Amino acid sequence: TGTSRPQRMLKAVQKNATKGDPQSVISAIDYYCRHKEWAMNVGDDKGLILDSVLMEVNPSTVLELGTYCGYSTVRIARLMSPGSKLITVEFNPAFAEVARQIIAYAGLQDKVTLVEGSSGDLIPKMKERFGIKYFDFVFLDHWKDSYAPDTKLLEDCGLLKKGTVLLADNVICPGAPEYLKYVRNSPRYESRYYKSNLEYTKAEDGLEKSVFLG
Ligand SMILES: O=C(CSCCNC(=O)c1cc(-c2ccc(F)cc2)cc(O)c1O)c1ccc(O)c(O)c1
Ligand SMILES: [Mg+2]
């Protein structure tokens, strides 16, 4: 058997990044995925858009759906103010295990709660389990056909407030057509597309930013 791609990515972080330095962790992953082997992190191009939207919102509570190896978790948590909380949901235990180590290597474990399980099961439990009233910012990067149902579930569970920002990765590649239709046609959202590239490639991809209007 041998190592998995996430495990090789973790090795690259431990070898090339400085413990406690989130920017060096981000750079080590981007270098590895651009020059050694591709992986489905949001990446550096879309990462700059994520950074700027995140800084604009300056959220107290963040939900990330789809942790993978924790690259976007580190990108988001490094910009969050002291006392703010990020909850990230990952279905795949092997991904979660690597993500925990990468988040800890960056020194961001105190801001981040990684929960293993399916978003559909966990979203209804957010209030009772984590004492969350609302999310100020939601980053969608998990199964693309779960974006729309999970957004409706967040609404139904009263976890969005007026002004909550949803930012969705991969709306072009692999694509999330149902989600785009939903947020662009719903009177409850103000949506905007940020054109970019699929991580570490020249292919088009982009992020959709949708503000919940209440
Ligand atoms: O893959 C999953 C679903 S979660 C990851 C969702 N993310 C993506 O699928 C995703 C995909 C791409 C992408 C892939 C191939 C291309 F040719 C082009 C683009 C890019 C992204 O930025 C993404 O976020 C999963 C696999 C096994 C499990 O055992 C489990 O539990 C989960
Ligand atoms: Mg993605």
What's the count of strands?
7
Largest sheet: 7 strands, mixed
What is the mean predicted local confidence, pLDDT?
A: 98
Helical fraction equals: 40-55%
Total DSSP helices = 10
Order of helices and strands: HHHEHEHEHHEHEHHEE
Structure description:
- The chain is an alpha/beta fold and 214 residues long.
- 44% of the residues lie in helices and 23% in strands.
- The chain has ten helices and seven strands.
- It has helices at 5-16, 22-35, 43-57, 71-77, 93-105, 119-122, 126-130, 147-156, 171-175, 177-185; strands spanning 61-65, 85-90, 112-116, 135-140, 160-168, 189-197, 204-212.
- The chain has a seven-stranded mixed β-sheet, with helices on both faces.
- Helix 4 (71-77) links the parallel strand 1 (61-65) and strand 2 (85-90).
- The longest helix has 15 residues, at 43-57.
- It is globular.
- It starts with a helix and ends with a strand.
- The model has no long low-confidence stretch (mean pLDDT 98).
- The site of ligand 77M has 14 residues, from helix 9.
- Magnesium ion is lined by residues 40, 42, 141, 169-170.
Topology (SSEs and partners):
Layout: H1 5-16, H2 22-35, H3 43-57, E1 61-65, H4 71-77, E2 85-90, H5 93-105, E3 112-116, H6 119-122, H7 126-130, E4 135-140, H8 147-156, E5 160-168, H9 171-175, H10 177-185, E6 189-197, E7 204-212
Parallel strand pairs: 1-2, 1-4, 2-3, 4-5
Antiparallel strand pairs: 5-7, 6-7
Helix pairs in contact: 1-2, 1-5, 3-4
Residues 40, 42, 141, 169-170 line the site of magnesium ion (MG).
